[in-house]
Amino acid sequence: MMRGESLPRAAAPMLGFGRLLRHYGFPVAPEQVSGFMQAVTLLGPRSIADIREAALATLAPTPDRRDEFEAHFQSYFYGNTSAVVEGDTDEETRIKDDGGANEDQIEAKQDEGGDLSSAVEQLSTRDFQRDDAKLTTFRRKLASALPARRSFRTVRAHSRGKLDLRRSLREIVSADGDVPSPLLRRRQTVPRKLLLLIDVSGSMKLHTSDYLKLAHAAVQGADRAEIFTFGTRLTRITGALRIRDCDQALARAAAQVDDWDGGTRMGPTLLAFLSVPRFSAFARGAAVVILSDALERGDHAELETAMRRLSARAFRLSLATPLAGDPRFRPATAALRAILPVLDDLVDGSSISGLTDFILSLARPAAAAAAIWKRVS
Protein backbone atom coordinates (compact mmCIF):
# COMPACT_ATOMS: atom_id res chain seq x y z
CA MET A 1 0.00 0.00 0.00
CA MET A 2 1.22 3.47 -0.85
CA ARG A 3 2.33 5.75 1.92
CA GLY A 4 0.32 8.82 2.81
CA GLU A 5 2.80 11.35 1.36
CA SER A 6 2.60 9.78 -2.13
CA LEU A 7 -1.21 9.81 -2.25
CA PRO A 8 -3.48 12.57 -3.59
CA ARG A 9 -4.50 14.98 -0.87
CA ALA A 10 -8.18 13.95 -1.07
CA ALA A 11 -7.25 10.31 -0.35
CA ALA A 12 -5.59 11.09 2.99
CA PRO A 13 -8.85 10.96 5.05
CA MET A 14 -9.67 7.48 3.70
CA LEU A 15 -6.18 6.22 4.49
CA GLY A 16 -6.39 7.78 7.94
CA PHE A 17 -9.71 6.06 8.65
CA GLY A 18 -8.17 2.69 7.82
CA ARG A 19 -5.32 3.41 10.25
CA LEU A 20 -7.84 4.44 12.91
CA LEU A 21 -9.70 1.13 12.59
CA ARG A 22 -6.43 -0.80 12.92
CA HIS A 23 -5.59 1.25 16.01
CA TYR A 24 -8.81 0.01 17.62
CA GLY A 25 -8.30 -3.66 16.78
CA PHE A 26 -10.21 -4.08 13.50
CA PRO A 27 -8.45 -6.65 11.24
CA VAL A 28 -8.15 -4.36 8.21
CA ALA A 29 -5.66 -5.48 5.55
CA PRO A 30 -3.80 -3.01 3.29
CA GLU A 31 -5.70 -4.45 0.31
CA GLN A 32 -9.01 -3.50 1.97
CA VAL A 33 -7.88 0.10 2.48
CA SER A 34 -6.89 0.30 -1.19
CA GLY A 35 -10.29 -1.12 -2.15
CA PHE A 36 -11.98 1.45 0.10
CA MET A 37 -10.26 4.33 -1.69
CA GLN A 38 -11.11 2.84 -5.10
CA ALA A 39 -14.77 2.44 -4.10
CA VAL A 40 -14.95 6.07 -2.97
CA THR A 41 -13.47 7.12 -6.33
CA LEU A 42 -16.11 5.14 -8.22
CA LEU A 43 -18.95 6.64 -6.14
CA GLY A 44 -17.86 10.23 -6.69
CA PRO A 45 -18.45 10.64 -3.81
CA ARG A 46 -21.59 12.75 -3.71
CA SER A 47 -21.96 12.72 0.08
CA ILE A 48 -20.56 11.31 3.31
CA ALA A 49 -23.21 8.60 2.99
CA ASP A 50 -21.40 7.31 -0.11
CA ILE A 51 -18.14 7.14 1.83
CA ARG A 52 -19.91 5.25 4.62
CA GLU A 53 -21.36 2.70 2.18
CA ALA A 54 -17.96 2.23 0.56
CA ALA A 55 -16.37 1.70 3.98
CA LEU A 56 -18.96 -0.90 5.00
CA ALA A 57 -18.58 -2.78 1.72
CA THR A 58 -14.76 -2.90 1.64
CA LEU A 59 -13.60 -2.73 5.26
CA ALA A 60 -16.26 -5.30 6.22
CA PRO A 61 -16.71 -4.96 10.01
CA THR A 62 -18.05 -8.09 11.67
CA PRO A 63 -21.67 -7.95 12.88
CA ASP A 64 -20.64 -7.94 16.53
CA ARG A 65 -18.50 -4.82 15.99
CA ARG A 66 -20.82 -2.95 13.63
CA ASP A 67 -21.91 -0.45 16.32
CA GLU A 68 -18.28 0.25 17.23
CA PHE A 69 -17.48 0.75 13.54
CA GLU A 70 -20.33 3.25 13.21
CA ALA A 71 -19.12 5.10 16.30
CA HIS A 72 -15.63 5.47 14.88
CA PHE A 73 -17.02 6.61 11.51
CA GLN A 74 -19.14 9.28 13.23
CA SER A 75 -16.17 10.40 15.28
CA TYR A 76 -13.71 10.52 12.36
CA PHE A 77 -15.83 12.05 9.60
CA TYR A 78 -18.37 14.07 11.62
CA GLY A 79 -16.26 15.00 14.65
CA ASN A 80 -18.74 13.36 17.04
CA THR A 81 -16.23 12.35 19.72
CA SER A 82 -18.96 11.30 22.15
CA ALA A 83 -19.69 8.31 19.91
CA VAL A 84 -16.28 6.71 20.40
CA VAL A 85 -16.42 3.41 22.24
CA GLU A 86 -14.46 3.35 25.46
CA GLY A 87 -12.19 0.65 26.75
CA ASP A 88 -9.84 0.31 23.77
CA THR A 89 -6.09 0.01 24.10
CA ASP A 90 -3.17 1.04 21.97
CA GLU A 91 -1.42 -2.33 21.96
CA GLU A 92 -0.53 -3.48 18.45
CA THR A 93 0.45 -6.61 16.61
CA ARG A 94 3.03 -6.01 13.89
CA ILE A 95 3.31 -8.33 10.94
CA LYS A 96 6.66 -8.95 9.26
CA ASP A 97 6.94 -10.89 6.02
CA ASP A 98 10.44 -12.06 5.15
CA GLY A 99 9.39 -12.51 1.53
CA GLY A 100 10.30 -8.92 0.67
CA ALA A 101 6.88 -7.29 1.00
CA ASN A 102 6.37 -4.09 2.96
CA GLU A 103 5.75 -4.52 6.66
CA ASP A 104 2.08 -4.29 7.54
CA GLN A 105 0.87 -3.10 10.88
CA ILE A 106 -2.39 -4.52 12.18
CA GLU A 107 -3.57 -3.23 15.51
CA ALA A 108 -5.10 -5.57 18.07
CA LYS A 109 -6.60 -5.38 21.54
CA GLN A 110 -4.51 -6.24 24.57
CA ASP A 111 -5.06 -9.76 25.90
CA GLU A 112 -3.80 -11.27 29.12
CA GLY A 113 -1.84 -14.50 28.93
CA GLY A 114 -1.29 -17.24 31.49
CA ASP A 115 0.78 -17.14 34.62
CA LEU A 116 3.99 -17.05 32.58
CA SER A 117 2.55 -14.94 29.75
CA SER A 118 2.12 -11.22 29.37
CA ALA A 119 0.65 -8.86 26.78
CA VAL A 120 3.46 -6.37 27.39
CA GLU A 121 5.83 -6.27 24.44
CA GLN A 122 9.49 -6.95 25.24
CA LEU A 123 11.95 -6.93 22.34
CA SER A 124 15.14 -8.98 22.36
CA THR A 125 17.36 -11.07 20.12
CA ARG A 126 18.66 -14.61 20.42
CA ASP A 127 21.68 -16.68 19.31
CA PHE A 128 21.24 -20.37 18.48
CA GLN A 129 23.98 -22.81 19.46
CA ARG A 130 25.16 -25.48 17.08
CA ASP A 131 23.34 -28.82 17.43
CA ASP A 132 23.78 -32.21 15.81
CA ALA A 133 21.64 -33.10 12.78
CA LYS A 134 19.12 -35.24 14.70
CA LEU A 135 16.25 -34.40 12.34
CA THR A 136 17.70 -35.98 9.21
CA THR A 137 15.23 -38.88 9.20
CA PHE A 138 12.29 -36.54 9.65
CA ARG A 139 13.48 -34.33 6.78
CA ARG A 140 13.90 -37.31 4.47
CA LYS A 141 10.47 -38.82 5.18
CA LEU A 142 8.37 -35.66 5.41
CA ALA A 143 7.48 -35.09 1.74
CA SER A 144 6.03 -38.60 1.31
CA ALA A 145 4.38 -38.65 4.74
CA LEU A 146 2.29 -35.47 4.43
CA PRO A 147 -1.44 -35.75 3.67
CA ALA A 148 -2.11 -35.71 -0.07
CA ARG A 149 -4.77 -34.15 -2.27
CA ARG A 150 -5.79 -34.49 -5.90
CA SER A 151 -4.43 -31.72 -8.07
CA PHE A 152 -6.31 -30.21 -11.01
CA ARG A 153 -3.29 -30.95 -13.20
CA THR A 154 -3.25 -34.25 -15.01
CA VAL A 155 -0.57 -36.70 -16.16
CA ARG A 156 -0.57 -39.49 -18.71
CA ALA A 157 -1.84 -42.81 -17.42
CA HIS A 158 -1.85 -46.36 -18.77
CA SER A 159 -4.93 -47.40 -16.80
CA ARG A 160 -7.65 -46.09 -14.49
CA GLY A 161 -7.82 -42.68 -16.08
CA LYS A 162 -10.13 -40.60 -18.24
CA LEU A 163 -9.95 -40.49 -21.99
CA ASP A 164 -7.44 -37.92 -23.25
CA LEU A 165 -9.58 -36.70 -26.13
CA ARG A 166 -7.16 -34.11 -27.53
CA ARG A 167 -4.20 -36.49 -27.63
CA SER A 168 -6.38 -39.27 -28.98
CA LEU A 169 -7.56 -37.09 -31.88
CA ARG A 170 -3.94 -36.28 -32.78
CA GLU A 171 -3.12 -39.98 -32.74
CA ILE A 172 -6.13 -40.76 -34.92
CA VAL A 173 -5.02 -38.22 -37.51
CA SER A 174 -1.41 -39.44 -37.52
CA ALA A 175 -2.49 -43.12 -37.73
CA ASP A 176 -5.03 -42.60 -40.54
CA GLY A 177 -8.04 -43.13 -38.29
CA ASP A 178 -6.74 -46.03 -36.20
CA VAL A 179 -5.89 -45.85 -32.48
CA PRO A 180 -4.47 -49.17 -31.18
CA SER A 181 -5.27 -48.43 -27.52
CA PRO A 182 -7.12 -45.68 -25.61
CA LEU A 183 -5.01 -42.75 -24.39
CA LEU A 184 -5.75 -41.81 -20.80
CA ARG A 185 -4.95 -39.09 -18.28
CA ARG A 186 -5.49 -38.88 -14.54
CA ARG A 187 -5.26 -36.12 -11.93
CA GLN A 188 -2.00 -35.86 -10.02
CA THR A 189 -1.74 -36.48 -6.30
CA VAL A 190 0.34 -33.85 -4.51
CA PRO A 191 1.29 -33.32 -0.84
CA ARG A 192 -0.72 -30.78 1.11
CA LYS A 193 0.89 -27.65 2.53
CA LEU A 194 2.36 -27.74 6.03
CA LEU A 195 1.94 -24.59 8.12
CA LEU A 196 3.79 -24.27 11.45
CA LEU A 197 2.88 -21.41 13.81
CA ILE A 198 5.50 -21.19 16.58
CA ASP A 199 4.98 -19.38 19.88
CA VAL A 200 8.18 -17.52 20.83
CA SER A 201 6.89 -15.87 24.01
CA GLY A 202 8.63 -16.07 27.38
CA SER A 203 6.59 -19.04 28.59
CA MET A 204 7.89 -21.10 25.64
CA LYS A 205 11.55 -20.13 26.07
CA LEU A 206 12.75 -23.65 26.89
CA HIS A 207 11.30 -25.10 23.68
CA THR A 208 11.77 -22.37 21.07
CA SER A 209 15.23 -23.49 19.94
CA ASP A 210 14.09 -27.07 19.27
CA TYR A 211 10.95 -25.85 17.51
CA LEU A 212 13.01 -23.70 15.15
CA LYS A 213 15.26 -26.65 14.31
CA LEU A 214 12.16 -28.72 13.60
CA ALA A 215 10.85 -25.92 11.39
CA HIS A 216 14.13 -25.81 9.46
CA ALA A 217 13.93 -29.55 8.82
CA ALA A 218 10.31 -29.14 7.66
CA VAL A 219 11.19 -26.42 5.16
CA GLN A 220 14.12 -28.46 3.86
CA GLY A 221 12.01 -31.63 3.56
CA ALA A 222 8.76 -30.23 2.11
CA ASP A 223 8.47 -27.89 -0.85
CA ARG A 224 5.30 -26.22 0.46
CA ALA A 225 6.06 -25.71 4.16
CA GLU A 226 5.45 -22.26 5.68
CA ILE A 227 6.74 -21.10 9.07
CA PHE A 228 5.54 -18.16 11.21
CA THR A 229 6.49 -17.08 14.72
CA PHE A 230 4.19 -15.18 17.03
CA GLY A 231 4.39 -13.54 20.44
CA THR A 232 3.45 -9.88 20.48
CA ARG A 233 4.25 -9.76 16.75
CA LEU A 234 3.80 -12.04 13.78
CA THR A 235 6.83 -12.85 11.61
CA ARG A 236 7.16 -15.03 8.54
CA ILE A 237 10.56 -16.76 8.57
CA THR A 238 10.15 -19.30 5.76
CA GLY A 239 12.71 -17.54 3.57
CA ALA A 240 15.37 -17.63 6.27
CA LEU A 241 14.83 -21.34 6.89
CA ARG A 242 15.32 -22.18 3.21
CA ILE A 243 19.07 -21.76 3.77
CA ARG A 244 20.44 -25.31 3.75
CA ASP A 245 22.92 -24.85 6.61
CA CYS A 246 20.95 -25.05 9.87
CA ASP A 247 23.19 -22.68 11.85
CA GLN A 248 23.04 -19.99 9.18
CA ALA A 249 19.28 -20.41 8.78
CA LEU A 250 18.59 -20.08 12.50
CA ALA A 251 20.90 -17.08 12.75
CA ARG A 252 18.98 -15.39 9.93
CA ALA A 253 15.66 -16.21 11.61
CA ALA A 254 16.96 -14.90 14.95
CA ALA A 255 17.76 -11.57 13.29
CA GLN A 256 14.30 -11.28 11.75
CA VAL A 257 12.21 -12.04 14.84
CA ASP A 258 12.03 -9.08 17.24
CA ASP A 259 9.83 -10.44 20.04
CA TRP A 260 11.81 -13.38 21.46
CA ASP A 261 10.90 -14.32 25.05
CA GLY A 262 8.47 -11.42 25.47
CA GLY A 263 4.74 -11.33 26.03
CA THR A 264 2.06 -13.15 24.07
CA ARG A 265 -1.15 -12.10 22.37
CA MET A 266 -2.12 -15.37 20.74
CA GLY A 267 -5.67 -14.47 19.74
CA PRO A 268 -4.86 -11.09 18.17
CA THR A 269 -1.78 -12.37 16.35
CA LEU A 270 -3.69 -15.28 14.81
CA LEU A 271 -6.45 -12.89 13.75
CA ALA A 272 -3.78 -10.65 12.23
CA PHE A 273 -2.45 -13.67 10.32
CA LEU A 274 -5.93 -14.40 8.96
CA SER A 275 -6.56 -10.75 8.02
CA VAL A 276 -3.74 -10.71 5.44
CA PRO A 277 -4.98 -12.56 2.33
CA ARG A 278 -1.57 -13.81 1.20
CA PHE A 279 -0.99 -15.30 4.67
CA SER A 280 -4.42 -16.86 5.19
CA ALA A 281 -4.04 -18.52 1.77
CA PHE A 282 -1.21 -20.58 3.28
CA ALA A 283 -3.72 -22.18 5.66
CA ARG A 284 -6.27 -23.14 2.99
CA GLY A 285 -6.28 -26.92 2.67
CA ALA A 286 -3.10 -27.20 4.75
CA ALA A 287 -2.05 -29.27 7.73
CA VAL A 288 -1.75 -26.52 10.36
CA VAL A 289 0.27 -27.22 13.51
CA ILE A 290 0.42 -24.60 16.29
CA LEU A 291 3.34 -25.04 18.71
CA SER A 292 2.24 -23.18 21.84
CA ASP A 293 1.18 -23.64 25.43
CA ALA A 294 -2.03 -21.69 24.58
CA LEU A 295 -1.97 -19.82 27.88
CA GLU A 296 -4.69 -17.28 27.17
CA ARG A 297 -6.23 -16.10 30.42
CA GLY A 298 -9.16 -13.71 30.71
CA ASP A 299 -11.22 -12.89 27.62
CA HIS A 300 -10.38 -15.58 25.07
CA ALA A 301 -12.99 -14.53 22.50
CA GLU A 302 -10.38 -13.48 19.92
CA LEU A 303 -8.48 -16.76 20.29
CA GLU A 304 -11.67 -18.77 19.86
CA THR A 305 -12.66 -16.73 16.79
CA ALA A 306 -9.22 -17.15 15.23
CA MET A 307 -9.13 -20.90 15.84
CA ARG A 308 -12.59 -21.38 14.33
CA ARG A 309 -11.54 -19.48 11.21
CA LEU A 310 -8.32 -21.47 10.96
CA SER A 311 -10.22 -24.73 11.36
CA ALA A 312 -12.60 -23.74 8.56
CA ARG A 313 -9.66 -23.13 6.20
CA ALA A 314 -7.33 -25.95 7.18
CA PHE A 315 -7.40 -29.61 6.21
CA ARG A 316 -6.29 -30.46 9.75
CA LEU A 317 -5.73 -28.14 12.73
CA SER A 318 -3.45 -29.35 15.53
CA LEU A 319 -2.18 -27.81 18.75
CA ALA A 320 1.05 -29.21 20.19
CA THR A 321 1.59 -27.96 23.74
CA PRO A 322 4.57 -28.84 25.95
CA LEU A 323 2.20 -28.84 28.92
CA ALA A 324 0.72 -32.11 27.63
CA GLY A 325 4.02 -33.81 28.46
CA ASP A 326 2.85 -33.91 32.09
CA PRO A 327 0.60 -36.98 32.66
CA ARG A 328 -1.57 -34.82 34.91
CA PHE A 329 -2.31 -32.34 32.09
CA ARG A 330 -5.95 -31.73 31.20
CA PRO A 331 -7.37 -29.02 28.89
CA ALA A 332 -8.98 -27.29 31.86
CA THR A 333 -8.33 -23.59 31.16
CA ALA A 334 -11.18 -21.54 29.72
CA ALA A 335 -9.25 -20.91 26.51
CA LEU A 336 -8.45 -24.59 25.90
CA ARG A 337 -12.02 -25.65 26.68
CA ALA A 338 -13.28 -23.06 24.19
CA ILE A 339 -11.02 -24.13 21.30
CA LEU A 340 -10.99 -27.89 21.95
CA PRO A 341 -14.12 -28.59 19.80
CA VAL A 342 -12.46 -27.08 16.69
CA LEU A 343 -9.11 -28.86 17.14
CA ASP A 344 -8.40 -32.05 15.25
CA ASP A 345 -5.47 -32.84 17.54
CA LEU A 346 -4.23 -31.73 20.96
CA VAL A 347 -0.88 -33.47 21.46
CA ASP A 348 2.31 -33.42 23.48
CA GLY A 349 4.78 -30.85 22.18
CA SER A 350 7.46 -31.28 24.84
CA SER A 351 9.91 -33.37 22.78
CA ILE A 352 11.25 -33.28 19.26
CA SER A 353 10.90 -37.05 18.83
CA GLY A 354 7.22 -36.91 19.75
CA LEU A 355 6.60 -33.94 17.45
CA THR A 356 8.34 -35.51 14.47
CA ASP A 357 6.39 -38.76 14.93
CA PHE A 358 3.15 -36.79 15.12
CA ILE A 359 3.82 -34.69 12.00
CA LEU A 360 4.81 -37.79 10.05
CA SER A 361 1.45 -39.34 11.05
CA LEU A 362 -0.73 -36.45 9.84
CA ALA A 363 -1.86 -38.41 6.79
CA ARG A 364 -3.40 -41.09 8.98
CA PRO A 365 -6.93 -40.48 10.33
CA ALA A 366 -7.39 -40.01 14.07
CA ALA A 367 -10.20 -39.31 16.49
CA ALA A 368 -11.02 -35.65 17.15
CA ALA A 369 -9.21 -33.99 20.04
CA ALA A 370 -12.43 -33.36 21.97
CA ALA A 371 -13.35 -37.06 21.86
CA ILE A 372 -9.90 -38.19 23.00
CA TRP A 373 -9.60 -35.76 25.88
CA LYS A 374 -13.18 -36.40 26.99
CA ARG A 375 -12.26 -40.05 27.51
CA VAL A 376 -9.03 -39.11 29.31
CA SER A 377 -10.79 -36.72 31.64
UniProtKB/TrEMBL annotation:
Entry-linked InterPro entries: UCP010256, Uncharacterised_CoxE, vWFA_dom_sf
Name of a matching Pfam family: VWA_CoxE
Coiled coil: none
Full protein name: VWA containing CoxE family protein
